[in-house]
Here is the input.
Amino acid sequence: MPRNARFTLPHRPTVYHVISRTALSGLPLGDIEKNRLLEIIKYFSSIYFVDVLGFCIMGNHWHLAVKIYPRDYATRQEVQERFVKRYGEDVHFGDQEIEKFSKKWTDLSEFVREIKQTFSRYYNKRHNRRGFFWGERFKSMIVQEGSTLVNMLAYIDLNPIRAGIVKKPEDYRWSSLGYHVQTGNKDGFLSIDFGLKEWNEFDPQEIVRKYRQFVYETGAVDAGKGKTIDQKIVEKARKKGYKISRVERFRYRCRYFTDSGVIGGKDFVQEVFDQVKHLLGSKDKRKFTPVGGVEGVYSMKRLGES
Here is the structure.
């Protein structure tokens, strides 16, 4: 039976909600696998002409809200810069490459295919297996910007709440709200253009605060599909104006005090790292991660990502 054609709008920037499920039983995506899948999504979003608006990686599926830009946005200079990042400076780059990659890197199906194939190879190697990892082809739908988009983003971020995994959506670090709150949107990975002009906000922190408020108020409503955010938690957040306190930000960094490998001042971490990097098989210099909420303290490991 032939597949239905995928709905795309190739001639203008378009937002899509992508959903992909595994072919394996149970919950094959553990913490390590979720971390790796997120790294892969981040990498390819820096190669393709896309903005990532939201995501959530669950135990057996993942959601992605992404805005794809058409070929008109792929200038020769930008394509070349991304080509060098992907393949290095020694690989030939000419008119044929411009034509090929300006088309490829503005294509939703190619974007998702590379993410899924790269992760499948990683998973099979890690678990010493062969065969398919992903199920049927990914689902995608075109999403109108504005209120439809922000409701869809809230739906994505509320997945861990409906599943009963966490009590507050930002406690789940493999989701967009968790990434905003726990990492401060590290590397500018996520776009904060939710399309709600009526918010009339330009301060990124205030935009995220209003989005968090929207997610909480939406998540408190019983829609008959899974669990909701506890009303007491919502009331407590309301009293704080949905602002994340310094204490709360610090709490999200507490893993650094148990899993950082080396923690302390930047010079101290560098000194110790130089002495133990042979044990880690590392020959490169490393940029150490500042621990949010504690001035002047750094971690050897990048726990925001790993």
Remarks:
- The two ends are 42 Å apart (CA to CA).
- Residues 260-299 form one domain.
